[in-house]
Design a protein that fits this description.
Elements: H1 10-29, H2 42-72, H3 82-104, H4 113-137, H5 144-171, H6 177-181, H7 183-215, H8 223-250, H9 254-280, H10 289-313, H11 321-353, H12 372-394, H13 398-423, H14 430-433
Helix pairs in contact: 1-2, 1-13, 2-3, 2-4, 2-7, 2-11, 3-4, 4-5, 5-7, 5-8, 7-8, 7-11, 8-9, 10-11, 10-12, 11-12, 11-13, 12-13
Length: about 450
């Protein structure tokens, strides 16, 4: 990592994604969208897409632009396309959210805002995929973590096409009786490709590189890891190919869903084996706060798997889907994102500011850029808020859910403040902050080789 070039716009991606997260949490705490409104209401879709696109997808893109060279030991291809991708994604999300507000009746306009937003988003993600796929292509044969990302990017392309179809349908620009009749099943496929394929599969792949790096553990690239990739890919293939075919042939996708779920649970079991192996074989005995906080995200992942199985077995999956999705989005993916940002932001800041001085002048440690003792309670509050929020949804208590959402909002704002303090070197003593040759980093732009 110390020899990899720093991605100039990574911090801008992170900043935008965190603003979307805070915006989504503010809406939830204010009672906007689910559970006050229906799970398919336009108000709920505003929160869903602020979270899934604005927070999680933009965060993943920013992280991949920085860490793809680390995964494949190649420089990032076409870095000049990174900033245009961010502008297109931000514009597309703005139009998309406005389109959902238009559907709710709060905006009166004849413009097909959803379709416009869908087009911008496809262009933005297409640029991101172009950069990342070209980088992957130059590094064949791909190491295991990069193979996870390759599958995730494929799911992103399918996700974008399906999402664009939905946007044009809701805007009235195209009509399809077949999709309209089976809309719920296609929406479920859309969610599976997004949460399970694009976001979770990429997160798992990157974790195979970042967790050993941060814990000083051997890379996990053995037989178990390969089977994690194989079973996960099988689940996604069955979902993306088997589900549409079964819907076309028999009008439902029960068999394909069961097969995909079996592959998914095998993958999760094998992934748990690898996580335990990485932790047990670490050379850093005292793990840092980002790893401790990641434990909450992994707990949310496996609690989500248990909850999903219980709900499916009792026939309550459709009725309680909101609680399950909330736990996955904010507990597993959101929790992992926040916990790793707590390490990534100081790490990149240290490389930018002190990396050129390494071995020539005394410099602070990466850990000196943050205050773990002060920050640990915020992660505890965040995960307690998410867990309590999921429980309140299961018991149909929207009033309690709003309080839990407020708790996660407060924790998130506090963590973001700590990231800003780390970026500004505020936790480093004045005497050590800027030795000769060092400079104060800019908040949203990373200096260094592009």
């Amino acid at each position: 990592m110390t020899g990899a070039p720093l991605s100039r716009w990574t911090m801008a991606f992170f900043a935008f994604s965190l603003m979307c997260l805070i915006g989504a949490q503010m809406l939830l705490a204010a009672g906007y969208g689910f559970p006050v409104d229906d799970i398919a209401a336009p108000e709920t879709l505003v929160v869903v897409h602020l979270t899934s696109i604005g927070w999680l997808s933009v965060l993943m893109c920013g992280a991949l632009f920085q860490f793809m060279p680390v995964l494949v030991d190649r420089p990032l291809s076409r870095p000049a396309l990174v900033l245009p991708a961010l502008f297109l994604l931000a514009s597309g999300l703005a139009f998309l959210v406005s389109g959902f507000i238009q559907l709710s009746g709060a905006i009166e306009s004849d413009w097909p805002l959803l379709a416009i937003g869908g087009c911008f988003l496809i262009l933005g993600f297409a640029l991101a995929v172009w950069v990342l796929v070209e980088t992957l292509w130059s590094a064949r044969p791909l190491p295991l973590p990069a193979r996870f990302v390759a599958v995730g990017l494929t799911c992103l392309l399918l996700l974008g096409v399906l999402g664009s179809v939905f946007a044009h349908l809701l805007s009235g620009l195209i009509e399809s009786d077949q999709i309209a009749e089976n809309l719920n099943q296609y929406v479920a496929l859309h969610a599976a490709l997004g949460i399970g394929g694009w976001l979770s599969f990429c997160a798992i792949g990157v974790s195979y590189r970042l967790l050993p790096m941060f814990m000083l553990a051997p890379d996990s690239d053995g037989v178990t890891s390969s089977y994690v990739w194989l079973t996960g890919t099988s689940a996604l293939v069955v979902s993306s190919v088997g589900v549409p075919l079964e819907i076309l042939l028999v009008g439902s996708a029960t068999v394909s869903a069961i097969i995909a779920a079996c592959f998914l649970y095998i993958m999760l079991a094998l992934y748990a084996v690898d996580l335990l192996s990485i932790y047990r074989n670490r050379r850093r005995r005292e793990v840092e706060l980002n790893i401790k906080a990641a434990g909450g995200a992994f707990a949310a992942l496996y609690l989500s798997a248990i909850l999903g199985a219980v709900l499916a077995a009792t026939g309550q999956l459709q009725a309680e889907l909101g609680a399950l999705v909330y736990l996955v989005a904010f507990g597993w993916l959101g929790g992992l994102g926040l916990s790793q940002l707590y390490k990534i932001v100081p790490f990149i800041t240290w490389l930018e500011c002190y990396g050129p001085l390494m071995g020539r002048k005394p410099t602070p440690r990466v850990q000196d850029l943050v205050c773990e003792r002060r920050d640990g309670p915020w992660f505890v509050l965040y995960f307690l808020g998410v867990g309590s929020g999921a429980i309140s949804l299961l018991f149909h208590r929207p009033d309690l859910f709003r309080l839990c959402a407020l708790a996660t909002l407060l924790a998130t704002v506090a963590i973001v403040v700590e990231l800003v303090l780390a970026r500004r070197l505020s936790n480093v003593s004045a005497a050590r902050r800027l030795p000769e040759g060092a400079h104060l980093p800019r908040l949203f732009v990373v200096a260094g080789k592009k």
